Hints:
The complex is a heterodimer of chains A (368) and B (491). Chain A is an alpha+beta fold. Helix content of chain A is 29%, strand content 27%.
Amino acid sequence: MSEVTIEDLPALAAGAHLLMSGAGQADIEGVLHWVSALLAEHGPVPLVRPDDVPEDTVCAAVGLVGSVTAQAELPMAGDEPERAVRALEARLGTQLGAVTVLDTATVNALLPVAAAALLGLPLVDCDGMGRVFPLIHQTSYALAGVPLTPLAAVGATGDTVVLDAADERAERLLRAAVNVSGGWLFTALYPTTTGTLPRAGIVGAVSRALAVGRALLDAADVDDIAVRLAAQTASRVLGTGRVVDLEHRTRPADAHYPAHPSSIVVRTHAQPVRSIRLEAQNELLLALVDGALAAAVPDVICLIDPHDGSVIDIEAVTVGREVQVVTVPAAPVWHTPQGLALVGPRAFGFPIRHPREGRVRHPGEVRS
Amino acid sequence: MNRPRLPEVLTVAELAHHGPLGRATMLAAAQPDGPVHHVALVSDLEQVGGCRPHTALVLHMPAAQGGWALESALRTAWERGAACVIGPAEATVNRSAVALAERLRIPLFIIDEDPAQYALDLAAAVAAPGAARAQLAARCAAAISEQSSLRGIVGVLNTELPGATVALVGEDGRLLAGRSAAVDGDVSVPVPDVDGRPWARLVARLGAPSASAEETVTTILRLARTQLAANAARPRLSLARRGAQERLLLDALLTDEPGNEAERQAQELGWQLAQNVIAVFVRPALGAPAVAPEVATAGVLAGWYEEFGDQPLVPHQDGWVSWFADTDARRVCAVLRRRLPKVRCALALTAGLGEPGDLRGSLHEAALAASVGVRGRPGTVEYFGALGPRVVLASLPQEQLGPAARSVLSGLLSAPDGEVLVQTLGAVLDCGGSTTRAAARLGVHRNTVSGRLERVRARGVDFDDPEHRLAIHVACFTLAGTGDAGRDAGA
């Protein structure tokens, strides 16, 4: 058993940034200060592995659903985690013994720490995504059959929503509630017991985010980052070069997903010069090197500034900017056939197979 | 002559030149010589991975939806050794896709029609390569046979050979028809005239040069040769015949009482003779090479019509006559001076203009002016009204004076360089006895002129005697006008 201290928070935030796969970081400074103040007041939060607590301990994932940007503009009052958890407990008729994480990316890596501190509960070192996906049912919890609901959500306007629905319906209903609640809802969802987490959660996700963050913050330069990241996550550098093209709405959009598709084309510096095409829709979803698929969702694809080692958001990419394209493998659960069906390239509208699925071999292939 | 047989498979370049790919827009033209054995219509990207080598891949949406899909298809096509990739018009084609196609050397095309129907057309062409080539040759042969001008025939070649530009170039390098961009092209086929003598070359520049495209284009250029030679000869033959007919008609019109039939024919030809006209008499410059009259007439008429369009020119006596329905002779004179040197024919031409009036009167004056003009440099145009005192010289009855002049100067003419001596003597007398000015006019050294004058004196011609001087001057002038001493005396 370990704990999350004030000193860990910057590394957790940095790791969460990289695991966003290029999605906009927005302003998380406010959340970072708030969580730091909570830890100063309540002390470090215990970070437990699922088997560190009794297996019948009731737990639920907590996190923000909606827009992080909206949350920065309309900040939390501070009591949302407690109100959401209490509402869920009232619906369940039992008290939570621990909280888990929805996804260890963006503010959702920090908010469960705040919830645990406020409620005086341990934080289970586990999440449902290992990165971030756009839809709340795209989780390992859902994949393992843990129901998404009942869920309880609290918004900036003080409303509380308690929802019972099938997973995909819950997504739509909650998204509608988000739209009329100022753009975000603090949500407690996937209620279960810690005994199910070893098979239903991505265990060690918080520790991994912390390790990734430390690799980013402690490295001397971008090459050092690559070495440290590879050691922690088996990441790969696809290439370093200059952005030569930005294209928007380059393919039909799937109405289920927020944001519009766009593309980034990077011409690499090293000889032979390669063209890296990145397909994005909120997150970076595909990377093709000279037309060959090199990385695809659910693996994390991110851009790092080769000069200062910082993570570059898609929104900050401009033509002429230098970037290093890095891919970090997703949790093993996402490379199963069921995982790829839920969050693989086809789930995002790309009619191709993930590199882990292998290519369909045809007789008489002449090149490889 | 044994020519290598064309391969039994069409290449991408051939399909682009005279097959269905000619209808497509070529975005990347790398490796056009690749053979096309198969055609595949692909609607799923994974099907690209199953295509056989040398396949033309026709992408159907959604296999080309988004720039990434096209790049992915190009990459897999390269891995599979495909011949080319053809995308639908709706495909997102961006710079990076085109650059990738060029780097992978995969020809990339975009079509603006139904991919399924297009794939069928392409498959039909690929299945019968000989048919595609024969069809093209037959189509060209049929279209060429319908043409009656050089320009028309070369136009057919330019239209029917997509991707190639064709020009017909004379032996002297002059563009006779077609596009000047093709003059230094990749393919050249000699075109002899109807007598088998070298006359011109058909030259083609290929948009995407390849061995097979060169073969096909050469075959079709050869098809056009006979028709070109026949068309080139036709105007010359018809011009000579037309010249002979019009000469008779003009002679009839110039008689005291031209018949009604002659006037009717003149009307049919569009000759405007009822009003005041300015006659022009065109003659070869002195020193022009001797050419058979009918050949000269055909050449001069062809060159004249090329420069002056429908303006009539009719053979008459030792020259050709034209007339302008105008009253401002100086304006006509200026036009002629500017354009007569541009008339393209082997003979250097000069001309004389008469005053405005009826054709007979004006023509008489034009002939007099021409007899002065003929002594000038090629392109000289003399206007009767501007001759001044020289009109006396122009009016001399040269035919009657000729024998007397040859008799008077027989001593000089019998010398080996007699013509040179006569011309030199004429020049000295023209220049008032100044050997310096005469030398400048003849383009020789003054001492040469002095030497020639010594030989003139030695042959008993005393041109210093005031009583003989005018007669000798007139004799020299006359001989120069008849050509007896008209050759270049500058050597």
